[in-house]
Design a protein that fits this description.
The chain is of the alpha/beta class. Helices cover 19% and strands 33% of the residues. The protein has two domains: 93 residues, Translation factors (Elongation Factor Tu (Ef-tu), domain 3), CATH 2.40.30; 124 residues, 3-Layer(aba) Sandwich (Rossmann fold). Strands 4-3-6-1-2-5 form a six-stranded antiparallel β-sheet. Strands 9-8-7-10-11 form a five-stranded parallel β-sheet, with helices on both faces. A hairpin with a 4-residue loop joins strand 1 and strand 2. The longest helix is centred in the middle third of the chain and has 14 residues. The two termini are 29 Å apart. Its cofactor is FAD. GO terms for molecular function: 2 iron, 2 sulfur cluster binding; oxidoreductase activity. InterPro entries: Cbr1-like_FAD-bd_dom (IPR008333), FAD-bd_FR_type (IPR017927), FNR_nucleotide-bd (IPR039261), MRET (IPR050415), OxRdtase_FAD/NAD-bd (IPR001433), Riboflavin_synthase-like_b-brl (IPR017938).
Length: 241
């Protein structure tokens, strides 16, 4: 088994996704590549030697020695506020990865894909969407993206552009925009029945977000008859940020 090592990573680009989230693009010499859906450990080291590290999903498919992350600020966090508010182009951190091999999508797969994301859980799912596009895959994707309100939407411009074979449904939990018929609220059985794939199509289902959201969505998929082995989940919870 390949031993993961820490590698120096230089920020080459950073851009705001929302008022509290930032996409970061790092150059990591010697990066071994990764699969859509994997994550990476980020380590910061202070002048006095104190270190703090957190795990973040990669937002884009492999591209040479470049690694792209989208980070949401966690209140009172140790790592995320620095990455979203203080890190500048040319600054360095350390990365270790890629990590994970279950919650991944490979372009050679032929099964339809259902992506269910809650909040920042959209990040690894976006990597899969971008991997599909990069590979020229014709596998049909459906994305159900649950978020509090339109202002928290990641990758808004990119997802607004039509893409053959990719259908997107937005689910708002706190405040829905004008013209949306679905009232704001948590994900429900009807949302997955209408915006997802029938279980008889045997889709590969990827669910990512806060623990409570992931458990609820996975239970709903099971209730709709989806096979447990086709439901892959990635969850996150309070870690200190």
């Amino acid at each position: 088994m390949r031993r993961l090592t820490w590698r120096p990573a230089e920020l080459v680009d950073g851009s705001a996704e929302t008022a509290t989230a930032r996409t970061l693009r790092f150059r990591v010499p010697g990066w071994p590549g990764h699969l859509a859906g994997q994550h990476v450990d980020v380590r910061l080291t202070a002048e006095d030697g104190y270190t703090a590290q957190r795990s973040y999903s990669m937002a884009a498919p492999a591209d040479g020695d470049l690694v792209e992350l989208t980070v949401e600020t966690v209140d009172d966090g140790e790592v995320s506020p620095y990455l979203t508010e203080e890190l500048r182009v040319g600054d360095r951190v350390e990365l270790r990865g890629p990590v994970g091999g279950w919650f991944v999508w490979r372009p050679e797969s032929k099964a339809p894909v259902l992506l269910v994301g809650g909040g920042s859980g959209i990040v690894p799912l976006m990597a899969m969407i971008r991997e599909r596009r990069k590979a020229g895959s014709r596998v049909p994707f459906r994305l159900l993206y649950s978020l509090r309100d339109p202002e928290r939407r990641y990758y808004a411009e990119e997802l607004r552009r039509p893409e053959p074979g990719l259908d997107i449904t937005y689910l708002y939990t706190r405040s829905a925009p004008d013209g949306v018929s679905r009232p704001a609220g948590r994900i429900m059985l009807d949302d997955l029945a209408e915006g997802g794939w029938p279980a008889t199509f045997e889709p590969d289902c990827y669910v990512c977000g806060p623990t409570e959201f992931v458990e609820a969505a996975a239970d709903l998929l099971l209730a709709l008859g989806h096979a447990p082995e086709r439901i892959r989940t990635e969850r996150f919870g309070p870690t200190g940020g």
